[in-house]
Amino acid sequence: MAFTGELAVSTRGLRKTYRRRNGSRQVAVEGLDLDVPVGGVHGFLGPNGAGKTTTIRMLLGLVKPDQGTMRVFDQPVPERLPDVVGRVGAIVEQPKFFPSFSARRNLRLLAGGIGADPKLVDVVLADVGLADRARDRYKSYSLGMKQRLAIAATLLKDPDLLIFDEPTNGLDPAGIREIRETMRGLADRGKTVLVSSHILAEVEQVADTVSIVARGRLIAHGTVAELIGSQAATTIRVGIEVPGTASDVLAAQGWTVRRDGQHLLVEGAPGGARVTEVLAREGLYVDELVPVRVDLESVFLELTAGQGPGTRPPEDPEHTHGRRAAGGAA
Ligand SMILES: Nc1ncnc2c1ncn2[C@@H]1O[C@H](COP(=O)(O)OP(=O)(O)OP(=O)(O)O)[C@@H](O)[C@H]1O
């Protein structure tokens, strides 16, 4: 499924190579078609080295693409970046704050620098859940609080699109949860949040839509429900005393059956009730029947299997156009 409605970000055929020291070229982004719908949290997901940072840097005009086109709020970038840059807030790396100044004072300075209304400082501190700690010195902040202050700084210009590159890197579980809640809160107030991550579990709970990239290519996109749904409900774990016989009976239905010790993993059955019925007709009774929980992490691992750094790019053209996950078209 293509995302319908207005797009905050759209790229077509985006490509970037870097020159290595030995003169050869490292492909970072390879014909990337990325669509980020307006509103909600969009997870930009992929293993390390998949090209996420390079893509974000290209969108922000920090790196020049070799090929392809990019649009932000329907304006071609980098050509029209000056027209849209005010609508975009990004954290690509940790901004520099004065360690001995309070969070509020740091933000006041920044607000002055960019001509933002100083009254906004307390608003954005509340937005990221730091209102209570606004008077504390920056150097007393935890890593998660520092990261939220960085987000607050980007909110000073009231952007419509927020781009966060791996914002939870190095954070503990509490810090990760706080960033997640902050992103959710921003999206609930109408902002579009584009967040990159190589850890799916962190994004799964907060993202409305996701794009999965590997080796610089889009390999899947859609809503989290679509991506999970494209593979969900197909695997049912069956515990039975006679797995061998049961396996033959189930396979005769045209379902794929794998042995997992004393259990069977059944794929393609319309549901657990039908599995039970088919077996019972043959006088076989299940001890246990559990749908295997599919989460985005397992979808991601399956889609990106063998596509980490140092492996060959996929040759299946399906993988290059992101149609696999769309609308369950896997
Ligand atoms: N300045 C550079 N010079 C040379 N190669 C680079 C440069 N920046 C990135 N690369 C290479 O391009 C590829 C994509 O890197 P990129 O940082 O965009 O990926 P990523 O998905 O953001 O990964 P990570 O999560 O590790 O940051 C990698 O192979 C990386 O080594």
TrEMBL record:
Where is each ABC transporter domain found?
9-240
InterPro entries annotated for this entry?
AAA+_ATPase, ABC_transporter-like_ATP-bd, ABC_transporter-like_CS, P-loop_NTPase
Pfam families in the cross-refs? ABC_tran
Sorted alphabetically, the keyword list is:
ATP-binding, Nucleotide-binding, Transport
Decide whether keyword Nucleotide-binding is in the record.
yes
In alphabetical order, the GO MF annotations are: ATP binding
**Segment Disordered: which positions?**
305-330
> Would the keyword Cell membrane be found if you checked this record's keyword annotation?
no
Q: Which Gene3D superfamilies match?
A: P-loop containing nucleotide triphosphate hydrolases (3.40.50.300)
Q: Which family does it belong to?
A: Belongs to the ABC transporter superfamily.
Put simply, this protein is called ATP-binding cassette domain-containing protein
